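User: My instructor asked us to take a sequence, write out its structure as C-alpha cells, and then describe one feature of it. I'm not sure where to start. Here is the sequence I was given:
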Amino acid sequence: MKTFYDVQQLLKRFGILVYMGNRLYDIEMSQIELKQVHENGLISTPEYLQAELILRQEHRRELAYIDKRRKKDE
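Assistant: Let's start with the prediction itself. The C-alpha cells for your sequence are:
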C-alpha cells in the first residue's frame, strides 16, 4: 500500500466509498472510516498504521497545495 488510491481500495473491500467532492474532505473522512475499520478488528494494526501514514502524508500535501494556490491568487 503506497498511495491514497490504495487506501481507498482497502476501504472499498469493506463497502466503504468516500466521495465528498473535495479532496481534503475525502482524506479526512477516509481517516475516520479507516479508524472504525481497525477498531472493529477488520484490519491488522500494521495495515492500519501504513494506511494512516499514507493519509497523513496526503493531508499535508493537500494543505500545502491549497496554501500555495491561495498565495498565487493573492
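For the description part of your assignment, you could build on this observation: The chain has a mean pLDDT of 97. Try explaining in your own words what that tells you about the chain.
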